[in-house]
Amino acid sequence: MERINHMEYMEGMETIPEDIMEEVIARMEAYDYDRYTEADVRRALDSNPLAPEGFAALLSPAAMPFLEDMAKRAREETRKHFGNSVYIFTPIYISNYCENHCVYCGFNCHNRIRRVKLDLDRIEAEMKAISETGLEEILILTGESPAMSDVAYIGEACKIARRYFRMVGLEIYPVNTEEYAYLHDCGADFVTVFQETYNSEKYETLHLAGRKRIFPYRFHAQERALRGGMRGVAFAALLGLDDCRKDAFATGMHAHLIQRKYPHAEISISCPRLCPIINNDRINPKDVHEAQLLQVITAYRIFLPFANITISTRERAAFRDNVIGMAATKISAGVSTGIGGHGGEEGEQGDDQFEISDRRTVDQVYDAIREKGLQPVMNEYVYV
Amino acid sequence: MRNENDKLIIGGHEFTSRFILGSGKYSMELIKAAITHAEAQIITLALRRANTNAGENILDFIPEGVTLLPNTSGARNAAEAVRIARLSREMGCGDFVKIEVIRDSRYLMPDNYETIKATEILAKEGFIVMPYMYPDLNTARDLVNAGAASIMPLASPIGSNKGLCTKEFIKMIVDEISLPVIVDAGIGRPSQACEAMEMGVAAVMANTAIATAGDVAVMAGAFKNAVEAGRMAYLAGLGRIMDKGASASSPLTGFLED
Predict the structure, then answer these.
(1) Global pTM?
(2) Of A356, A208, A191, A379, which Cα lies nearest the Cα of A277?
(3) Are A380 and B48 in contact (CB under 8 A)?
(4) Euclidean distance between CA atoms B144 and B56, whole angstroms
(5) Burial of residue A373 (number of CB atoms within 10 Å: 0-12, 13-18, 19+)
(6) Is B244 one of the annotated active-site residues of the chain?
(7) CATH numbers and ranges of domains, chain B
(8) Which residue is catalytic, options B25, B98, B167, B224?
(9) Which of the listed residues A87, A106, B55, B71 has the most CB atoms within 10 Å of its CB?
(10) Is A134 at the interface with chain B, CB within 8 A?
(11) What is the value of ipTM here, to two decimals?
(12) Predicted confidence band of residue A175 (pLDDT cuts 50, 70, 90)
């Protein structure tokens, strides 16, 4: 099948000025991490605030021997900006239908998995069950199918969510500004979009078909969300898809430039790395090792000290517990990446997007945070 | 050490403590110890934190008799600050409100213009309004006219622990404004709190410096003592400090005879 040009917008996709994308891509392409020296890393660790050039140094191989120093500096920044607080939330997958063909993803349209879309009654039952665990923040996710899970359906899910939760975030396919505005009116106010990789050539080889194939439309999703009235936006590269140093650098720069252009925006970063998925064992999850992942997370913290950093359930419990308080400020708990997995009501269940490593309940994660002398926080915002 | 006759008066309410404690960024069980050791009588709290069903609500950790000062953190404009303040009153948090309007996620700098607007609306509704602001004399005057009960200029960026970066500008407000001036944000050490009190501010507020200290209770006590020492020094009248060298022992006007 012939693949369409991944840099050309499809019909109906809104275009906005591309200044941020141009700068991020240019800087990422110019980023030669092998040229950084020990002296560059030391200078970066001594500078405050950290400029993009220092961020680049901290992501370089030369910084690996300084991981302990980076962890200490990250911890200082985290404590200054967030004190002892660690926020808890959980994702809810409401549909796993997907029209994209992304070679690494368990939801991709050619993967033979059980597909389910929760109806509104089941969404309500699931959300009620989740809220009874004490959680007050929820992240609504769908597979990327505007046909099977359209904006109106997601909007209804947001309205239900607002009855049970104090904060509602979205991790759905990118939409236009007016659709983000509609979803904001329905009760969501935070939008997460993973760019996966910022290398558009690599991106093209991984996203073979579907709306997700259009690289620039995805790139500008956060900006459209903010223009649509969302309070905040989250960024991520799926580390291990491509060169993780370059992708981490681009992710940080993307977040940095968005905050510069929209100073009120709350910024959040996620740090997923590739995990094994159903029907595809060829992907090697060891591409990005824990030390490298920690280098990336601590570099994010030092560069963007004000940003929330979320640590994924893909990581093992001990890793997550050590990263909170040091660099991460948000942790998910009681996670199921399948559909209908929260036991709200009997019914057909859809397969998971990826395998999780940390299967602890909300209470277990809550207690683990307390045991570290940190404060679990269920709610950090008040809608008025 | 504390002079019980030296009262801090805000909106008609009298306090003998001049140290206001922030309640964010703590582990909950430490809040009570901090309040006790600081001997604080006013505690700020973020309404967004108090507005929870979670097992641990910050309100349960604040002792009886302590005055709550809810803040409007999370508000990005005057309208949101006003709505948060009204919600706070409905939740039984009293009439005090600290206005925080911030639309800058990096430095968390307060928006003075929106703060003035919110102050005017809430003062008319009977709130005791304590606005957090960037220390600008014109804004301070506008806040007085808008009905503020105190002025709360920042010492340096919030959470930075950098101390009195804005000292000269706070001094102008202390000299020109008759409301209590309370230094808020950026105070990282007891010595900085003491220095602020020496220059005549009415009270000091601190949070991060205590919440993230190695020993929260001991640091709370250190701040209490520093604030009281600074206040005593101010009341005593500081000795002369020469800007440029020592005073000449042979005065230039010593030749005058009649």
Answers:
(1) 0.85
(2) A356
(3) yes
(4) 37
(5) exposed
(6) no
(7) 8-236 (3.20.20.70)
(8) B98
(9) B71
(10) yes
(11) 0.72
(12) very high
